[in-house]
Amino acid sequence: MIRLNNVNKVYRTDKIETLALKDINLHVAKGDFLSIMGPSGCGKSTLLNIMGLLDNPSQGTVAIQDQAASEFKDKQLAALRNRKIGFVFQSFHLINDLNVVDNVEIPLLYRRMSGTERHSRALAALEKVGLSARTKHFPSQLSGGQRQRVAIARAIVGKPEIILADEPTGNLDSNMGQEIIDILMNLNKDDQTTIVMVTHDERIAEQTSHIIRLFDGSQVN
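The structure corresponding to this sequence follows.
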């Protein structure tokens, strides 16, 4: 599903050059649930952004389902992200002025789809994460765990084959965090959704099928 070959990422300013990733070689197969671990500043989020086609490597190649990202123009990359990849973030990134179902519909606005179908898909996604009773609520009326469930519903509403999750339990207590991981585990098991998750929590990472560890931008296992 995702292949990275000899990926390096360098950030440059006028006076400083920072090597964020060094010689990353990674193959994520269909149906994998991969955790990325490492200390703060080791390149985890940078790696996830490159895997999600939100950022480009300085060197090396990135391929999604054997399609090299470098072969696509920006508009094609945006379409690929919209259809193939769902994103879940630590801070939820919900729009406070929209209710739950409208937040979930957002990725579908970029597809040729009727409002009725968008609404139906959003309701189905919310049912999958156990929030059917909260469709008209606003984010400010929800707990942190509920807001993350909305974020997951938004990520899966377009039926992506890949979910990239950046610290999805980072702002939650252990019980709520486990509920979120259980939802992701069910998506992985029931729908064969490929999931790559950045986490600091060893207990959570051990529940996934593989763990990749980074240190100073390099793989250490």
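The first helix runs from residue 44 to 51.
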